[in-house]
Amino acid sequence: MRRIWTRYAFGVVTLALTLASGSANAWVCDFLTGGGFIVRDTGAKANFGVGGGCKNGSPTWGHLEYIDHGMGLNVHWTSITAYMEWDSSAGPHGQPTGARLICGTARTNLFGDVDWVVGARDSGEPGSDDEFIIRLARFGFIVYTTEKDSDHTLGGSGPGGGNIQLHKPNPSTTGSFGGSCPAMSAGV
After folding, report:
1. Cα–Cα distance between 129 and 126 in angstroms, integer?
2. Are 62 and 181 in contact (CB under 8 A)?
3. How far is CA 72 from CA 47, 102, 119, 156, 185, in A?
4. Which neighbouring-strand residues pair with 138?
5. Least enclosed by CB within 10 Å: which of 33, 141, 154, 165?
6. pTM value surpassing 0.90
7. What is the distance between the alpha carbons of residues 109 and 12, in angstroms, rounded to a whole number?
8. Beta strand pairing call for 73-90 and 58-68
9. DSSP letter at 92?
10. Whole-angstrom Cα distance, residue 180 to residue 59?
């Protein structure tokens, strides 16, 4: 019995020292969810649903669905390869605000398989002036982007609508920001 108690006490002390030293990687990463529509400079609407974050120590949780009704483009994610902090801040009531980059691969009906990156910004509640930007790349070249559109805003002062929600870290979002994002380095 004494041997079991000694091992238990050693384990508790080790855990306490690890947590005190800051080397434990608990709850570093947050997660983002959102949905809505943007209005392209062409006047066409594009609907989206997006999510991303860290799960089990890896920045590979999320999804993307995107439809540009003007060109008939459908994008369906096949993998998440990165979740990165773009910027962070706190809202007036302490809720997290800021922007994240979510990257992955997808299949499309117009371009085949692509790499993608989404920039999504939570500008506070209730979903006013949030932003959504998307880029698709194939073989290192940009095949579709909303980056040059004049307004990426959802509601508030912008032509779109919806909500981006940046959620606080919790026990299910352990890990750290990072991953691979080939669409970020794609050229025209």
Report:
1. 9
2. no
3. 11, 23, 22, 27, 26
4. 141
5. 141
6. no
7. 55
8. antiparallel
9. T
10. 10
* Per-residue pLDDT tens listing for the chain (188 residues): 444 433 333 333 333 333 333 434 445 788 999 999 999 999 999 999 999 998 877 777 899 999 999 999 999 999 999 999 887 665 555 555 689 999 999 999 999 999 999 999 998 776 678 899 999 999 999 999 999 998 888 876 778 888 999 888 888 778 888 999 999 999 86
Nearest to 35 by CA among 22, 23, 50, 20: 50
Q: How far apart are CA 186 and CA 184, in angstroms?
A: 6
Residue type, 150: S
Q: Measuring CA to CA, how many Å separate 80 from each of 7, 71, 151? A: 40, 25, 26
- Distance separating alpha carbons of residues 16 and 34, to the nearest angstrom: 37
Instruction: State which amino acid sits at residue 92.
Output: P
Residues 6+ apart with CB under 8 A from 76: 64, 65, 106, 107, 108
